[in-house]
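Before surveying the methods themselves, it helps to consider a single example record, giving the amino acid sequence and backbone structure tokens:
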Amino acid sequence: MEKISILGAGTMGHSIALSAAWAGQTVSVYGINEQDLENADKGLNNKLKVMADNELFTAEQAEKIRKRIRLTTLLEGAISDSTFIIEVVPEVLELKKELYSRLETLISDDVIIASNTSGFKPSLLAEEMRQPNRFLVTHFWNPGHLIPLVEVVKGEHTDEATVERALNVLKEMNKKAILLHKEIPGFIGNRLQYALFREAQALLDAGAASKEDIDAAVTYSIGRRLPVTGPLMTADMGGLDVFAAISNYLFEDLAKDQQSGETLSKLVEEKKLGDKTGEGFYSWEPDISAELNKEREQTLIHFLKTDLKADKL
């Protein structure tokens, strides 16, 4: 097994650490201060309790998993014996580049540096590195401990040995890794997600339906199929002649906006940012927020259990 270090103790950082520790790996997690580590520790304990309560493992196993995760505010200590580093710092290009520059003075030549960026091209991130051959993107999806997908994106100079080691690490973590053959902004998942989000915004701005009915159109139709079949397999099952015919007349009328829609822009301007501010497209009272977040978490756990059963067959 690789020796993993995660640089960033926020929501994604400690969730990725939990995935690795659950798979039996020992992980070091670097946070910028003690408050950062305190939040990570609380997040880990809460997640472990929920997972144990849902019988993904026992309470005794949860304790063992937690002991495999070491939290520290010392960067050098976090990476002292690391062979595989996952960077999970804020999406600020210069911040990431500064971190890589510092890392390259502290680690040996065979240590891999992976970024959890959700959109930056790896070649852009690595353009000032001395050894860009050992750099790539491993984009985990939030919540990182429950969603299997990780998008692996190699840069212009990433060598194949780096890719193979990353794929092996993710396999050991029981993740579903997909490999992109081209560097494209947003990778695969976010491009698909935001294509749907753009059309949803356009429908709302045009007054085609209420926000509730637009959301329902997804959750009670295509959302029911997506856990089993993606868009291309769905087309195969429905008949490519049918999907081609619909594409030919519908694509012309689909949203082509190059910026956020009118409603979204207005909400952001008014600082109505959704769950975290109490109001967005919807109103988010504390009890509603807690209920929906719990429901989503339970649904993800259900699918994760299904995945684990399938892996055992």
Notes: Residues 169 and 246 are 41 Å apart (CA to CA).
